[in-house]
Design a protein that fits this description.
- The chain is an alpha+beta fold and 285 residues long.
- 14% of the residues lie in helices and 33% in strands.
- The chain has a single domain, classed as Fumarylacetoacetase-like, C-terminal domain (Fumarylacetoacetate hydrolase, domain 2).
- The longest helix has 12 residues.
- Strands 1, 2, 3, 4, 5, 6, 7, 8, 11, 12, 14 and 17 form a twelve-stranded mixed sheet that branches. A five-stranded mixed sheet has the order 9-20-19-15-16, with no helix packed on it.
- It is built from five helices and 20 strands.
């Protein structure tokens, strides 16, 4: 199932029976399925409650979608499919591009890093660039969303904690500061256009991914090029901190990273997951 958030935090099922491609897809409004969420009072539990209750909400959404009217997705303002992650976790230098064993070992030693939750945005929000005297690069990545709380998760159980997958863009300014600071600007973690539930992706390590900038192919690779795979990232992260529903992994990017500027259009696609089309602009106060 493909679930999207749109407009004023409405929930939609993206109709899989239409032609492939964002412009041909239809969304069926199933916001009423959110009535399946438990009621909470302050202090709220950590994590994204939709992801924590995805099975129950998803079942109701499927039932509602049968009779819900369809709206072309290109008429909707798409938000990030995840609203409230406690963490956005990145994987630096995580793709093999002909490195020798020493380079691969160095990439493994870098571990993972965190991005501010405020950097999260959806397709329709676009990317708002700041400090444009610096080079600011695009990176297409497989986004992995956690659906079940866990700590010290064994590698062979790691994928059982995944709620689903999305296309992600990790926007990266150059600079001397720690990467967690540079990468944490608002809109610098794009996730979308929807969440594909984990049952739709049998193997997250066999997915083609591409990025086109203004119609020109800039990045192309396959998730089988990852140095540390999805299960390994989940297992590693969970030894340092508890993972909560809605936590997002940005799993690294293939070769071809390059600069973006206001006016650019990024189209990023991941096989079996979807395509995001994002406009780049300058930040205005």
């Amino acid at each position: 199932m493909r679930l999207c958030r749109f407009g004023e935090n409405r929930l939609g099922v993206v109709d899989p029976s239409t032609s492939p491609g964002v412009s041909g897809d239809q969304v069926r409004d199933v916001t009423a399925a959110l009535e399946e969420l438990p009621s909470y009072r302050y202090p709220l539990p950590p994590g994204d409650m939709l992801m924590a209750n995805l099975e129950k909400v998803g079942a109701r959404a499927r039932a509602l979608a049968k009779d819900a009217p369809a709206t072309p997705i290109d008429r909707l303002q798409l938000l990030s499919p995840v609203a409230n992650p406690t963490k956005i976790i990145g994987a630096p230098m995580n793709y093999r591009t002909g490195q020798d064993e020493a380079a691969i070992a160095n990439a493994m030693s870098l571990g993972l890093f965190l991005k501010a939750n405020g950097s999260l945005s959806g397709q329709s929000e676009g990317i708002a660039l700041r400090m444009m005297e610096r080079q600011i690069d695009h990176e297409v990545e497989l986004g992995v969303v956690i659906g079940r709380q866990g700590a010290n998760i064994p590698r062979d159980k790691a994928l059982e904690h995944v709620a689903g997958y999305a296309v992600a863009l990790d926007i990266t300014p150059h600079g001397k500061e720690e990467r967690s600071l540079r990468k944490s600007c608002e809109t610098y973690s794009v996730l979308g256009p929807w969440l594909v539930t984990a049952d739709e992706i049998s193997d997250p390590q066999r997915l083609d991914l591409t990025l086109d900038l203004n119609g020109e192919r800039r990045q192309q690779g396959n998730t089988n090029q990852m140095i540390r795979d999805v299960a390994g990232m989940i297992a590693l992260a969970s030894t340092f901190y508890t993972l909560y529903p809605g936590d997002i992994f940005l799993t690294g990017t293939p070769a071809g990273v390059g600069p973006i500027k206001p006016g650019d259009v990024i189209v990023a696609t991941i096989e079996k997951v979807g395509t995001v089309r994002v406009n780049v602009r300058a930040l205005t106060n």
